[in-house]
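Appendix B. Chain record.
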Amino acid sequence: MLLSVGYAHAQVVEPPAQAASAPKADKAEKAEKAPSDRSKLDTVIVTASKREEAAHKLAINIEALSENKLREENITDLKSLIAASPGIEAPANGARFTDSVTVRGLNVSSVSANNIEWFTRSTLSYYLDDTPLPDIGLRIKDVARVETLLGPQGTLYGGGALGGTVRYITNRPKTDRVQARLSTSFYQTRGGGVSNDTDGMVNMPLGDDLALRFSFARLDEKGRTDRYACTPSYLASSPWKAKSDAGQCVYKDDDWVKTNTGRLALLWKATPDLSFTVSYAQQSQLAHGSTGAQLLPATGNPGRYIAQMAFDNQTVLSPYPEFTDRDIEVATLEIDWKLAGARLHSATSSYSDSRVGQGDYLGTGSFFYGDLGYSRFRLGSASWAGNTAYMTYDNQYRGTVHETRVVSDPGVWSWVAGLYLSDQKRSQQYSEWMPGLEQLKTPGRGRTDEGYTENQASNYRETALFGEIHWKGIDRLTLTAGARMFGYKDRADTQVEDYAFDLVTGNVQNQEKTSGKSYYKLNAAYQLTNDLLTYATFSQGFRRGGANGFRAQAGQQVDPATRRYLPDSTDNLELGIKGFLLDRTVYVQANVYRLNWKDPQTYFSQDVNGFPVWGTTNGPKAYSQGVELQGRWRVISDLELTAATTYSEAKWDGSKTVCLYANATECRTYEKGGELGGSAPWKHTLGVRWSGGTDNGLDWWVALNARHIANKASDRGDAPGETVFSYPAYTTLALRGGLSFGDWDFSGWVNNLTDTRPLVSFQGTSAVAQRVGLRAIYLTPRTVGLSASYRFR
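C-alpha cells predicted for this chain:
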C-alpha cells in the first residue's frame, strides 16, 4: 500500500493542532488524541472489522484518513480520494462521468470516459457508515475518517467487494458540548475561474440524552474547458447549427460544477446502554460540460490517441450542451445496545441515487444513422441535411438495506455475528436522438426523433448470515475464521428498441435464484512485538451477475449461456507485516498478494447489421499479483519522511471462447497471458512534512510530495502481446502548508506544481476517431488554493 505525504495511514495520524483548515480540537479532545511524545507516531482506532480496534494490530491491509487529513489534503469526494490513494485507480474524467475503479489490478474495462453508465465497472464496494451504496457520490464533508480496505472483503461486506471496500465514517451528534465550524476555500485551476467550496457544521445538545448535528456544503467550481458548438474548418463540408444558441460558437469555461450537500442527524440516548440515531443526507449536483481537448480525425493505434489538437488543450467539439443532474438521498435508523458481554448494532437505510443527463453524439450519430443508415446524416455526404445526434441518459438506483450484528467483548474467544437483508432496484437507460429521423422511421415508434433506446433494469434481493470468530488461546497468536452464507433472487429486464431501422425490439427477462451460497475467510496473525504484527490471510469476494438483452437474429438462436452472466469471485492469498519500529519512530508495512479471479465479468456485444447491442460475459479465469511496500519515519518531532511503492501484474490465467449463438458463431476468444490493463504496474511516492510552533500558540506545517505513475494500458489485451494503447508515465508534485492560531486555521496548496499535462483518459470509439476525432483528457492543470476555517465556541 502506498502512502503519500499527508496521506495518513490508519495507524499514524497527526495531532489536531497541526492540521490546517480543520477545526482545532478542544482541550478534552487534544488530551485524548495528542501523542505523549511528538517524536513518536500515534495510533488511531478503526472499525473496519465491525469492532473498535487499533489499526496496526488489525490483520488486513487498511488505510485511513482522519478528518484533519482529509481537509489538509483537500480530499472532498470519491474522485479526489482515488486520486490521492495509492491502492486504487480510476481515469481522471470530469465530474459528469462515473468511472471504472480498479483495485489491485482487477480490471477488464476500458480506462476512458463514456456517457453510457453501463460501461463503468468497479471491483470496489462503497459504504456510508453501515449502508452499502451502488456508488458513493456524496461529498466528503463532516466525515470523521475514511477507511479503505484493500483485498476482498466478502465475509463482512458482501457483494461488490471483489478487490476492496471504501467506508465513509460520519461524525455523530454529541450530547456533552455545543460545537460549530465554518470553513471556506478559494482555488483556481490554470485556465479557469476562481472556485469556492464552503461548508459548515453545528452540533447542539437538546438535553442530557438528546443531540442534533447539522452539516452543509456548497461547491461552486468554475470550468476551464471551452465548448465549440459550430462547424470547425476540418468538417466544413457538413455544416450544422450550434445548440442551444445558433449564433454562439464558443461557450467559455463550460465544464463547471455546482453541488449542494446537507446532512442532519439526531441522537437519543434512551438509557446508558441503549441509543438511537436517525440521519438524513441529501445532495444535488449539476455537473455541466466535458473536460478535455478535441483531436483531429485519425485512425489506427496509437495514431488516433496522439493526433493533433483541433483547437487547443482545453476546448472540446460539441454541437449540443452536455450535463449530468444528480440527486442522492440516504435515510438511516441506527440502534446501539450494550448487552451483557456483547454489543448490538442495527442499521436500516433507504437510499436513492438519480443521474439524468445529456451527451453529444456527433461522431457516433454519423456512424450509426449515416454510414449504416441514411446518407443525409453522414458527415461529408453530398446529401448532408445539417442534423447531428445527441443522447440522453436516466440512471436510477434505489434500495432498502438492513444489517444487525452482535459483537462480543474481547477475550480468548471473540466473535461477530450478523444478519443482512437488501432489496435493490437499478435502471440504466439511455436514448439516442437524431433530429429529422421522425419522417424516416416507422410511424408511432418511440418518441419524436428517438432512434434507439436501451434500459438494463434489475431487482436484486438478498438475505445473508455472516460472522467471524477469533481465538487467542496461544500467546501472541490470533486465529480467525469467517463466513458469509447467503441466498439471492435477481430479476433482470433488458429492454432494447431500435426505432430507426426496426432491427431490434422487445425485452429479455432473466431470473437468477440461489440459496446456500458461501464465501469464507481464514487468517493467522502473530504479534512479533507489541507493535509489530505479521499475518497470513485467505479471503474471498464476489459480485452479482445479471442478464443480457441479446436476441435471436436471422434465424440464429442466442446460446442460453450467453443470455446471462454469472457472479464473479476472487480468492485472495496475502502475507504481510506491519507495525512500529525503533521506539515508534518508524512505521513499516510490506505485503505480497495473489488474487485468483473466477468468471471475471467483461464486456461483450451482439452485432445487428453493424449496430452493437451491449452486454456482459464471463471470461476465463484471471489473476492479479503484487507487492505493496510503505514506510514512514518521524526523524525528529517536527520532521517526517514517507516513501512507498507498489507493483501489480494482472493477466488472463486461462483461455476461453465465448459464442453468442447456439450454433457457435459470432465468437470471441480470450487467451491465457493477455494483460488486463487499466492499472499502472508501478507506482511510487516520496514525501516530507515539516511542522512546528511558537510559544504564543501559533502552529505551522509545510509538506511536499512527489508521485510517479508508470505507463498504463488503456484497455485489456485478449492475447499475449496484443498491442493496446498505453497512457504515458508521469510524475507530479504537490506543495501544501498551513497555520493555526486560536480558533482559526489557514492553509494553502498547489497541486500539480510543475503543471504536468499527460494524457490520462479519452472519450470516443475508433468510429468516432475516424469521423470527428477523439476527445483527449489530460491531467488537471496546476491548481492553487487558499482555505480558512473558524471554530465557534
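Further analysis of this model is presented in Appendix C.
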